[in-house]
Amino acid sequence: xxxxxxxxxxxxxxxxxxxxxxxxxxxxxxxxxxxxxxxxxxxxxxxxxxxxxxxxxxxxxxxxxxxxxxxxxxxxxxxxxxxxxxxxxxxxxxx
Amino acid sequence: xxxxxxxxxxxxxxxxxxxxxxxxxxxxxxxxxxxxxxxxxxxxxxxxxxxxxxxxxxxxxxxxxxxxxxxxxxxxxxxxxxxxxxxxxxxxxxxxxxxxxxxxxxxxxxxxxxxxxxxxxxxxxxxxxxxxxxxxxxxxx
Lengths: 95, 141
Known about the structure:
The complex is a heterodimer of chains A (95) and B (141). Chain A is α+β, with helices and mostly antiparallel strands and 95 residues long. Chain A contains four helices and three strands, in the order αβααβαβ. Chain A has a three-stranded antiparallel sheet with strand order 2-1-3. Helices cover 56% and strands 19% of the residues of chain A. In chain B, 59% of the residues lie in helices and 8% in strands. Chain B contains four helices and three strands; from the N terminus they run ββααβαα. The two termini of chain B are 29 Å apart. The relative contact order of chain B is 0.17.
């Protein structure tokens, strides 16, 4: 088995770093309507009405909800999409 | 002011006085007030939000200047209206905490500016609810 070079180690670390799942988190706010938030979840993620409502209620009752988990790049895309719909959204590393 | 659903699946706003028209035009003037958006929004979205407001501003001004009896919101324009109104409500919330005023005691004791902000927020909320009920949620079905 070939010895790992520093370059390879770096690449592996980068890979591990990028493999860490990221959560897209929507935060509660006093302005957005419940129906609207559920509608946005359906539009952005393609969720069913039931799932969108469940997540919306989680935002409402718990102040936040993890609405999607996955790779960083896509998480950033979703955060921007949700900002575009005027939902307060952030992302965080899972775990 | 009356707001009615239309046969084509949109909404029709019928202002009944100059005050109603003023009320509608305030949708766009409040947008300049400070909000907490700066903490969340990347700069390129600001242009998108500005476009929503400019679009609604133009629609209201055009209808008023042409003495049209109503402003029609077709289904294709509902999201821009909703977004523009949301920005006003965010501004009113940032400036007056309007959503926390329901239990703030007797309206008559409030400063006129606060009372105005409260009623305007309630009106905008109603308009948003109708946009959702009669246009945006139906489009999703």
